[in-house]
Amino acid sequence: MPGANPLKPRERVKIARQQAFERPAAERSAHFLEVSGGFDEERARVEASRCLECRDAVCVRGCPVAVDIPGFIQLILERDYLGASRKIRETNSLPAICGRVCPQESQCEEVCTLGKKFAPVAIGKLERFVADFEAECRAGLPARATARLSTKVAVVGSGPAGLTCAAELAKLGYGVTIFEALHAAGGVLRYGIPEFRLPRSILDREIRTVEALGVEIRTNVLVGRTLTIDELRNEWGFDAVFLGTGAGTPVFMGIPGESLSGVYSANEFLTRVNLMGAHRFPERDTPIRIGREVAVIGGGNTAMDAVRTARRLGAERAYLVYRRSRQEMPARAEEIAHAEEEGVELLLLTNPLRILGDERSWVVGMECQRMTLGEPDASGRRRPVSVPGSEFVLPVQTVIEAIGQKPNPIVQATTPGLETAERGTVRVGDAQQTSRPGVFAGGDVARGGATVILAMRDGRQAAAAIHHALSEQSRSMHASCITADSRGGEP
């Protein structure tokens, strides 16, 4: 069937990649409103027309959840935006979220054929456009599966892995209950990502979409304390359990002065703001104290979120302290650019040595050392090497460490036989199966800190594995019953 794009490939490559609408930097650094406005219909259609409609759609292979990218782009060209959204939702239960926070530049867009010589198709922005169009149209929520099974699955954690696993299982007709330790669902999507990147209204809508499939969400239930995995299986009657508890325990550098007042982990800092609304104190109950000068240690997306949040909380100078160069920073290029536009100062090739305090044990500065890059280490990045005699003191009143996180050990400690790997992650096989029969895991609890989309891939894979395991179990039980009947009721 001919496509809706009349342009020949040589004409398509001449079209410039479209840019999303954005709030001016001077304005946005004073509030938490979303920075990017995405595409309007005109820009979306122009951008969609750049797609080369490759027969070998390598962009699909570059997507961790295998979205039919050419398929949904074709529907945009046909002006069937709701159809495009449905096409994405075939494999991606959270498109409005992925369109905002997924690192497309290192996944689907990185392998885009057009991108070999020109700017790749803005796949992420197009995904966001159709998801937002669906919301603006107030399109109906998805229907529940027509065949409801008596089999029940418990999902522990309501982050991207848990929400995805729950949605996929609900589509297959399973009874699914999510258990969330916090008072609101969303996991890292809620407590870790600021509203200027992911508005809460978008997150809440995607969660409602998952609930509409028949998923029950129970908040304020800390599995491992309120109840255990064994109790979920043996007393609550769940036939399988998926662990998607994330990685919410912060990692610190271990340098002197970390116990001073004014030192935060990025996890605590962002949770106070994103989940507890500290930026609205005293309207909200949780306060947070920020100095005139703030240093955030790290170079990933969490560090970018923390330093940009600090600017919005009133920091006159916000430093991003990173021991390697800009080239090695793991944060998205877009987030780095946005941070600089908002006045964040990057102190690259700089390593903190100790945090300094006054007589009241409040932070007054941070001693740092200049670095240079040596040979590559195990990660493939060039190893930072200290420059002798280059120490200096950075005057700051707040220090936020964003150098990584590891899983909370509560579930692991209360589940006998659940094998763990280094840094407390749950050990899983190819199908997300843990060492405990009927217990699966994915996302950051199995990977350590990773991306939202990789957690979603784990959730999809786990749902498929759970479905396979429970289907095999059902067939085995059915066969046993038939055998017993043929023997006159004797097993």
Topology (elements, then pairings):
Layout: H1 9-12, E1 21-22, H2 25-28, E2 36-38, H3 41-48, H4 58-62, H5 69-77, H6 81-89, H7 95-101, H8 123-136, E3 152-156, H9 160-171, E4 175-179, H10 188-191, H11 200-212, E5 216-218, H12 229-234, E6 240-243, E7 249-250, E8 263-265, H13 266-274, E9 293-297, H14 301-312, E10 317-321, H15 333-341, E11 345-347, E12 350-357, E13 363-376, E14 382-386, E15 392-394, E16 398-401, E17 405-406, H16 410-413, E18 439-441, H17 444-447, H18 452-486
Parallel strand pairs: 3-4, 3-6, 4-5, 6-18, 8-16, 9-10, 9-16, 10-11
Antiparallel strand pairs: 1-2, 7-17, 12-13, 13-14, 13-15
Helix pairs in contact: 3-8, 5-6, 5-8, 6-8, 7-8, 9-18, 13-14
Helix and strand content put the structural class at alpha/beta
CATH topology of the largest domain, what is it called?
FAD/NAD(P)-binding domain
Q: Output the CATH class name of the largest domain.
A: Alpha Beta
Average pLDDT level: 94
Question: Kindly, what is the distance between the CA atoms of the first and last residues, rounded to a whole number of angstroms?
Answer: 57 Å
Spatial arrangement of strands, main beta sheet: 5-4-3-6-18
Largest sheet: 5 strands, parallel
Overall morphology: globular
Radius of gyration: 24 Å
Describe this structure in words.
It is a single chain. The chain contains 18 helices and 18 strands. By secondary structure, the chain is of the alpha/beta class. It folds into three domains: 9-136, Alpha-helical ferredoxin (Fumarate Reductase Iron-sulfur Protein, Chain B, domain 2, Orthogonal Bundle), CATH 1.10.1060; 152-248 and 406-478, FAD/NAD(P)-binding domain (3-Layer(bba) Sandwich); 256-265 and 274-403, FAD/NAD(P)-binding domain (3-Layer(bba) Sandwich). The strands form five sheets. A five-stranded parallel β-sheet has the order 5-4-3-6-18. A five-stranded parallel β-sheet has the order 8-16-9-10-11. Helix 15 (333-341) links the parallel strand 10 (317-321) and strand 11 (345-347). Helix 5 (69-77) packs antiparallel against helix 6 (81-89), helix 5 (69-77) packs across helix 8 (123-136) and helix 13 packs across helix 14 (301-312). The longest helix has 35 residues, at 452-486. The chain is globular, with a radius of gyration of 24 Å. The chain starts with 8 loop residues before the first helix and ends in a 5-residue tail after the last helix. The mean pLDDT is 94.
